[in-house]
Structure formats: C-alpha cells, structure tokens
Amino acid sequence: MTPGTRTVVHISDLHFGAADRRLVDSLLQAIAGIAPHVVAISGDLTQRARPSQFAEARAFLLRLPAPHVVVPGNHDVPLYNVLARLVNPLGGYRHYISRERFPVFADDAIVVAGADTTRSLTIQDGGLRARDVRHLVRVLASAPRGAARIIVCHHPFDPLTSRRARLTLPRPASDAVGLLVTAGADVFLTGHLHVGYVGHTAVRYGVSGRSAIVVEAGTATSVRIRGEVNSFNVLRIDSDTVTIERQTWSAAAGRFVHDHDERFTRTPGGWDRADTVIS
Q1: pTM of the entire structure?
Q2: Which domains does the chain have, with CATH numbers?
C-alpha cells in the first residue's frame, strides 16, 4: 500500500424526515474537520422515501466533503406507495441521490465498493443477491496489490433465523461474507440496526478462514436511537493497521466527540484486534 494513512468516514441511517435537526449541522462540521479521503454512507437516507426527504438528503450530501460512496437502505424504498414499491422501488433514490448500483471509490491504497441490499417484498430485511456478490468479487480482484478493500452495504449479513424471513428473502447471508472475505475483503461497513459494533467476521457471522473486520454504525441523526447515542465512525487505514474511531453525540458539549478507538493489525490470517483506547 502507498505510504500514508487513508481516512474513511462511515455514517448511516440519517433518516431525513425523522432527523434530529440539532445534529445535522454538527455532523457536517465534524466531518469537515476530519477531512476524509472518502465518506461512506450505508443507507436509510430518508424516513419514508418521500421526495421532500430525498431533497433534504441530497442537500446534505452536497455539503459533505467529496467523494462519497452511498448505498440505499430499506427506508429509501416507499412503504405506503405499493405500486412504486413493486415497479420502481428506488426511483426516488436514483432521481435525487445516485443512479450507481455499485458505487466505487478507488485509489492505489484503498478500494471502497458499495452494493444495494434492499428488497421490494420485505419491509425491513435485505441482503446481497448472488449476482451482486459476483460483481463485488470482481471489483475486489481488480484492486491494487496491498490495497485495503472495503465493502459498504446497508444490511448486516447475519444469517436468517425465521421461517418467514427465509421465505420472503432469498439471500446468501453468511455465504456472501465467506466469498467476499476469500476474495480479499478487509472491512465490511453496514448500518440498519442503529447500534454500533466492531468485531471480526468469524465472531459476528461465524465465517471460518481469513478474518475480516465488521464495522456497524449507529444512526448519525435519527431520533430513533434505540438505547444508544447518535454516532458515526472514522476509519484510519494504513498498510498494516486499521483504527476505528467512534464519534458520539454529546448533548452537554453540543457536538460530536471522540468516544473510543478500536485497533486491528494485519496478520497472515487476516485482521486481529490490537487494543481498545478510551478517550
């Protein structure tokens, strides 16, 4: 990998239409101060996929440092407009946000590749289709030697457990993770659950073999915080180290503040956790 650290900001679940207005400007200021090489947005830009909400999301993206790798979430598919949901589920997203099904940022040190995990026939769930996995494998294979390879999706890759979910959502689940890790994926960035998480693919998804890093973002700006504070992630990546810095909203300070770091080092078997630093 080319010398020098690459910085990736990872935000998710903005939910314009149900966003806490106090946080939006503060989030933009925090990201501008970080000056990332790329911003990854892992879905749910809107609350109900309405044009006004997509317009707000687009205005927000235009104020973010570029470039962006942005993917849709299940909330970016219309819920109540059944015809649109079935015929053109991502029509609003494509009109206001991006027509890219597989957005990619790449230089000689990192490759950040996104993919759509949304479905029309399920309200909450989602996952990669087999053809999407094949495409991402080709993207990873074309990455420069030594580059860090990062996958961005909205939904985590947890195996399906309920019979209803299995019937309505045929997805590769953990098979997708195994194929992508084998193809060289180093980091998976996801959202959806509004809960921050950092760990290994072997622990989170039960995938054996080479170990990659799983990073889930909490919601950056939604009022639906599910027991956590609003937060986002900052990844600082060099040739042998990935440090994930969590930034959380402090009501007392009126801004996002550095919470803690989790550090991983490259080994022959993948990525091992090095330490956790509390700020």
Answers
A1: 0.93
A2: 6-278 (3.60.21.10)
